[in-house]
Beta-ketoacyl-[acyl-carrier-protein] synthase III (Streptomyces longwoodensis), 343 residues
Amino acid sequence: MRSGTGGVTAVIAGIGAVTADRLVKNDELARRLDVTPDWIRVRTGIEQRYVLAPGEATSDLAVRAGRRALAAAGDPDVDFVILATCTPDHTFPSTAPSVATRLGLGTVTAFDLNAACSGFVYGLSAGTGLIASGAFRSGLVIGADAISTIVDHDDPVTAPIFGDGAGAVVLRAGSPDEPGGLLAQTTGSDGSLLDTLITPSGGSRQRAAGVAPDPVSSYLRMEGRLVFRHAVQRMAQAARDVVARTGWTVDDVDLLVAHQANERILTATAGEVGLPPEKAFSNVDRVANTSAASIPLALVDALESGVLRPGAKVVLAGFGGGATWGATTLVWPDIAVGTEPAA
C-alpha cells in the first residue's frame, strides 16, 4: 500500500508509552541460559528488558499507554481504536474492544491488527486511511505486545531479545502541511517468508490437522540470519521510498526511528538508507525488542532525552513477521509526552 501527501491526512496529536514493570537484566537471564551477560550484549546490543508480571496481559499495557496518549492530547473524543498486536489477550475475540471500554471510549469502532513488529506503522497507515475517508475524525492507534508470553525462556536465541511494552498515539484529521501530519506512507508483505518468524501452533492450521500442540511449537521460532537480511533491506528500501515521495533527500532527514529489533539491525539499516549512525535513534539496550510497541516507545524516549524536537523531519520504519514492513514520514509536532492520570 502506498499513499501520497495530498488532501486530508492524520495528524499526531498526543503520544504515550509504557513498559511492563518487571525489570530483567542480562545477568539474571545469563544465569538461566548458561551464558555471560557480555555474550548477550555483544550479540544484541541489549542490556535489559521489562516483562509482564504473572496475571498481566497485553491489554493492561495497551490501556496504560492509551491513557497517556489521550491525556497528552487533552482527552479528546476519538472515533476508533486500532490495536496493533501479535499477542492478543485471547485468540478470539479481538482485544481492542475491551481496551476501548476500559479507556471509557464507549462503543467506538475497535479492532486488532496483526502485522507483528511492523504493526505500529501498519496501524498508522490504517488510521490515516480511516481519517482520509471522511468517515472518522480522530482515533487512537496503540502498538502493544507481550512477547515474553510466547518465548521459550530457556532458548538463548530468542529469550534475550524481547521485552514487553506498549505505545500509543492520538490521530486527528488535519493537513499534510501542519506539523505532525503523516506524509508519504508505504506498507508491504511477502508471505514466502512466513516461516522466518512464526509460532507454529495455536491457530486453525494446527487445530484442523488434529495435531496436539507440543511445548516447542507454541513458542516463537526465528531464523535469525534471514530476519536480519530482510529486515535491513525492507526497512531501508521503505525509508528511501517515503523520503523520496515526500520530496526530501536523505540529507534532509533529522531522525530515523526504526523498529528496535537489535543494535546491529538498526546500524545496518541506517547505513543502507545513507544516514550516519547518530541519526538512527536506539533505545533497544534499555527496553529490548518490544515488537509493535518499539517505535512509539523509541519516540517517547527520543522526546524525553531531547534527541527529538519539534520541527524535526522524521522517518518511521518497521519490519515484522509475515513478513511485513512499512514506513512513513512526518515533521514532528510540538506535543508533550503523556503521563498516566492518577487513579
